[in-house]
Amino acid sequence: MTKSLLEQLPSIVAAGRRQAAQILEGLEGRNRVTLQTRELVVPAKDSNTFDLIKQADREQFDGQTAPGASDLNRLIYGDNLLAMAALLAGDDENPSLRNKIDLIYIDPPFDSKADYRTKVTLPGTTISQKPTVMEQFAYTDTWSDGTASYLAMISPRLVLMRELLSPKGSIFVHLDWHVGHYVKLLLDDIFGKQNLRNEIVWAYHGPGSPGMRQYNRKHDCVYWYSKSDEWIFNDSDIREAHSDKTKGNFKAGLAGSGFIVDDYELAEGKIPEDWWVMAIAGRYPVDGKKRVGYATEKPWPLIERIVRGGSNPDSIVADFFGGSGVFAAVAEANGRRWVTTDLGKPSTMVMRKRLIDIEAKPFLYQAIGDYQVEQARSTLGRSFRVGDLAKVILELFGALPLPPEENVNGSLGRLPGTRTLVVADSPSKLTTISTLRRAQGYRDSKMGGFDRVVVLGWNFSAGIGQDIAALDDDQLEVLVIPPDLLDRLKKKGGAEKLASSVRFASLQYLEARVAGRKKLADGEELSVDLINYVLLSPEAINLDEKNRASVQQVMNDEPLALIEYWAVDPDYDGEVFRSVWQDYRGNTENDGDPLRVATTARLQLPNKAGGRRVCVRGVDVFGFESEVVIDVAEVA
């Protein structure tokens, strides 16, 4: 007989605690999870006007603050369980945040039947993109056995969140009727039911459905728990003004009414009750922007009350289900240091654009370092060898391994019946031009020589597209190993069950050029043009046939219309991309076109002797990133 959820809860909590304990035990080990800084974003969106004061601020920042400085805010792409493990572990540039975060707010998905498809509007068409396969697997893990799976997902994450909270810290967990009452039991167990500060009811208005046979469901719950019996509560920041009638009653005297009101309370207003009536839509009071249109976006005033009431101006605050980025934007507007994460590429794009749009302070865009390695350890065991994984990749591609004496770390294979060599690169390193040259050497020397070579890679160096073009080798092909492959292996249980469904896609490729570099009276101007964008194989994107055909049409007619966001680093150091100019679809301050980016960047920069190494990064509407590096001669 199937156990009820109440009967399953003790084992779910125990399993969650064990999983969290294993992560905590590994924080000091050689294989601890790390974060890789993909971009240092210095917000400076393209517009028709140029603000010299903002430029001066950027130059000051550029000269005085090193990338990766521990006081920078952080937007992290990836599984929040791994992100939290990395934040707890810390690294050489960023100390551990264990016991350092004063406020955590989370708004996790809580409806198993929700539609998480993304609408992408392109010139002449609107397509519906399903979640990436990586997101889909995370979601199916969450709901595979209904609410029990959801609780198994959230349980270890809540344990790690408690480890991140400071002794005076609090967590606010935002849920609705689907799973809220069950998660409250987990919160009682992990944080202690004595530390429940409030069950906050957020009530909102909206139309119901015709023919309803019940009352409209028009509220969510936010469960507020503190870590201890000491917690931050800034009542002065969230008080509401008394009504004129109430003030009149206070002045007239309230003998026998039961109210005790001092002069401070009368002047400063009342502390709100734990039921809040706030509209879902509406304009934000801080930046004047409308909602960004994200499906699960929460209103600014709701989040602002939580941030202002539950943290101090010098606090670190965090949201591990970042969604639309409203929490990070509110934290930014209220002077808090923030960390936010999300597994969805569309979400991280929305957040990055939103933060640039409100002219946030410089922040880091990070990803899980060696994500595939972490997934491989999860799938193949903590003691997996790279050669074991290479064997699986070769099998999925249809290649047979070379004899041991000819094989290098088990990474070489051949396609049966052909003279084609296959090289499966390691997930723990970048595929670079050196990798490609080495593959060319293997092609010419192994087993008397092959006619062609195919390189299968996980992660690629900046400018790899340029490198491939420069090699100009028709007998060299470079393909991308699906980033979700290890999740799929874990689900299916073996390579043989996946062989017919795995697609190795071609690399996307961005073309750009430096159109000019000239001296000015007070510096120099750099002009950069986008030339072309080649999307990776549309078959690798999670679209149905109709939408795939629409994307193919845009690729043929106007490939640059697929660019969602692009940025320029005029002094690329080969390690951290320092984004000091950005443009994105929806930024209408430059050309009034919400569906296209500007194709020319004009940067006004301080003078620099010698040449410049310029890096251009583009992100397409599906979240795929490409880079091109351009060396520019000294100004004549």
Structural notes for this entry:
With 636 residues, this protein is an alpha/beta fold. Helices cover 32% and strands 26% of the residues. The radius of gyration is 27 Å and the shape is globular. The protein starts with a helix and ends with a strand.
Topology diagram in text:
Blueprint: H1 5-25, E1 34-41, H2 52-64, E2 73-77, H3 80-89, E3 101-106, E4 118-122, E5 125-129, H4 133-143, H5 147-164, E6 165-175, H6 180-192, E7 196-203, E8 219-226, H7 235-238, H8 244-252, H9 263-268, E9 275-277, H10 300-310, E10 316-319, H11 326-333, E11 337-342, H12 345-357, E12 363-369, H13 371-380, H14 386-397, E13 400-401, E14 412-414, E15 420-424, E16 430-431, H15 433-445, E17 452-457, E18 459-460, H16 464-471, E19 476-480, H17 485-492, E20 505-506, E21 509-520, E22 523-534, H18 545-557, E23 563-569, E24 578-579, E25 581-584, E26 600-605, E27 612-620, E28 625-632
Parallel strand pairs: 1-24, 2-11, 2-12, 3-6, 3-10, 7-9, 10-11, 15-17, 16-18, 17-19
Antiparallel strand pairs: 1-12, 4-5, 6-8, 7-8, 13-14, 14-15, 19-20, 21-22, 22-26, 23-25, 23-27, 27-28
Helix pairs in contact: 1-5, 3-5, 5-6, 10-11, 13-17
Features:
636 residues, alpha/beta, Rossmann fold, Trna Endonuclease, Chain: A, domain 1, Immunoglobulin-like, 11-stranded mixed sheet, 26% strand
The number of E-state strands comes to: 28
Any low-confidence stretches, pLDDT <50, length ≥5? 50-54, 63-68
- Report the biggest beta sheet as strand number plus sense, adding barrel if it closes: 11 strands, mixed
Any guess at the CATH architecture of the largest domain? 3-Layer(aba) Sandwich
Query: What order do the strands of the largest sheet run in, or round the barrel if closed?
Result: 9-7-8-6-3-10-11-2-12-1-24
**Strand portion:** 25-35%
User: Termini separation (Å)?
Assistant: 82 Å
CATH superfamily of the largest domain: Vaccinia Virus protein VP39
Overall domain count? 3
CATH topology group of the largest domain: Rossmann fold
